[in-house]
Amino acid sequence: MLKTIVKNWFPAEEVSAHCDGPCGVYDPAQARVHAEAVLSMTKKILALDPADGSHATANTLSRYIAIKEEEAHATKTDLLVLWTDFFKPAHLEQFPDLHETFWMATKQCSTCKTTVDLEAAESLMAMVETIHNMFWAAKGKDVAWATAS
User: Which CATH class is domain 27-138?
Assistant: First the structure.
């Protein structure tokens, strides 16, 4: 009922958008930041010595693991938004491996969540770089890949 009242008070044309919101602002940079945090946390976890048995080390380890898992999930979310909202069927001509690239990258995010594997974290960074390059090529721009660390 309220919806009908609002529509009557504020009539508007019906519109549609290719995504959840018609902002048109996409950038793989946030996925890179999150993936880089996964790599950083993985390195920090591997550098800890849990054999010292201290509560401080246990606390630090649990914090690093929580951050790594959150960042891997955030990377996956960012990639899924690019895949499902930015890239269109027309991009498949330009990038025939588009779906495979994104599918493998999102699976790699899960691997990074469930393991402490430096090679997996480095591989995720490489996959995000590939997606970065695809994204900017789709927009007809040459944007250099740069990391914070």
Answer: mainly alpha
